[in-house]
């Protein structure tokens, strides 16, 4: 079958769900991933034919897209900080906003600091600590998560990307009473977290591919206690950061003021709220007094 005919079928079947632009980007991503064909291939070879085996693959992906399965789950990969991370239903798909948080940390430390001790709380796929490990010199990086299944994905990414992040299982909400985890006996220079922060009331604004396919455990918080993870992370960081150590958090865009107040009430100075590329309050940094 002609590749351009398949592209037309993609548009006729999927544009109503995703819009033309996104369908274009899915199609090109898939032909690059599966067949190693570049984006401009149709401009050069408008009559390119793909074989039966390739047809099966591209139509299988089409039927999964119709069911609103995330493209990253179809190919099993998400790109983050120019690295390829394995992802599945047990972990949140890395988001571009989170790259901005990682870039903030790298801008603060890349050329100046060595041997930083770093902890990521609620690590999921491990995208935050692994990309920090790979971009910083001699950093000692730790990542914790409550989910054993998420940690399996993080460990696999660690191995595939040649990083040495130390992952361990722990429940963020009971860390203050945790005495048996040896990784938590030390102090850190940097603590980061992108914990669950979407309120149930915000579910209506979310897309089906997120709600149906990504882990609720990593996304949602109760409407009446939306900062429950931030309370514990901020308390923990106040105790476990070195003096002048930095806390970086990804936050709910509607709760910037409230999250900032949490840091102000605790042991933090020079608190900075930043917007993401979409103009929403999305991340916050505080320095421990
Ligand atoms: N930013 C993510 C979303 O909009 C949520 C991430 C999180 O809850 N930590 O789906």
Automatic annotation (TrEMBL):
One of its GO terms (biological process) is methylation. Residues 28-76 form the Release factor glutamine methyltransferase N-terminal domain. InterPro entries: DNA_methylase_N6_adenine_CS, HemK-like, Methyltranfer_dom, N5-glutamine_MTase, PrmC_N, RF_methyltr_PrmC, SAM-dependent_MTases_sf. Pfam families: Methyltransf_31, PrmC_N. CDD domains: AdoMet_MTases (cd02440). S-adenosyl-L-methionine binds at residues 122-126, 145, 194. Residues 114-205 form the Methyltransferase domain. Keywords: Methyltransferase, S-adenosyl-L-methionine, Transferase. Its EC number is 2.1.1.297. It comes from the Bacteria. It catalyses: L-glutaminyl-[peptide chain release factor] + S-adenosyl-L-methionine = N(5)-methyl-L-glutaminyl-[peptide chain release factor] + S-adenosyl-L-homocysteine + H(+). It is an enzyme of class 2 (transferase). One of its GO terms (molecular function) is peptide chain release factor N(5)-glutamine methyltransferase activity. HAMAP family: RF_methyltr_PrmC. Belongs to the protein N5-glutamine methyltransferase family. PrmC subfamily. Methylates the class 1 translation termination release factors RF1/PrfA and RF2/PrfB on the glutamine residue of the universally conserved GGQ motif. This is Release factor glutamine methyltransferase. It comes from Maribacter caenipelagi. The lineage of its organism: Bacteria, Pseudomonadati, Bacteroidota, Flavobacteriia, Flavobacteriales.
């Amino acid at each position: 079958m002609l590749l351009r005919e398949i592209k037309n079928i993609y548009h006729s079947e999927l544009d109503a769900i995703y819009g033309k632009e996104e369908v274009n980007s899915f199609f090109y991503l898939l032909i690059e991933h599966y067949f190693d064909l570049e984006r401009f291939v149709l401009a050069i070879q408008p009559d390119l034919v793909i074989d039966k085996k390739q047809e099966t693959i591209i139509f299988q992906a089409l039927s999964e897209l119709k069911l609103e399965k995330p493209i990253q789950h179809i190919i099993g990969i998400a790109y983050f900080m120019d690295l390829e991370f394995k992802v599945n239903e047990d972990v949140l798909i890395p988001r571009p906003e989170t790259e901005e948080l990682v870039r903030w940390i790298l801008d603060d430390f890349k050329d100046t600091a060595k041997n930083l001790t770093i902890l990521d709380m609620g690590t999921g796929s491990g995208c935050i600590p692994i990309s920090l490990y790979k971009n910083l010199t001699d950093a000692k990086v730790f990542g914790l998560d409550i989910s054993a299944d998420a940690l399996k994905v993080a460990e696999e990414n660690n191995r595939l990307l040649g990083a040495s992040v130390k992952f361990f299982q722990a429940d963020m909400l009971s860390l203050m009473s945790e005495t048996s985890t040896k990784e938590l006996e030390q102090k850190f220079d940097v603590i980061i977290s992108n914990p669950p922060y979407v309120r149930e009331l915000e579910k209506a604004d979310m897309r089906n591919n997120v709600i149906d396919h990504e882990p609720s455990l990593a996304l949602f918080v109760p409407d009446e206690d939306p900062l429950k993870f931030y309370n514990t992370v901020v308390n923990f960081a106040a105790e476990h950061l070195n003096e002048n150590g930095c806390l970086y958090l990804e936050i709910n865009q509607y709760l910037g003021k409230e999250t900032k107040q949490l840091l102000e009430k605790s042991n933090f100075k020079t608190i900075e709220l930043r917007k993401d590329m979409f103009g929403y309050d999305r991340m916050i940094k505080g320095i421990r007094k």
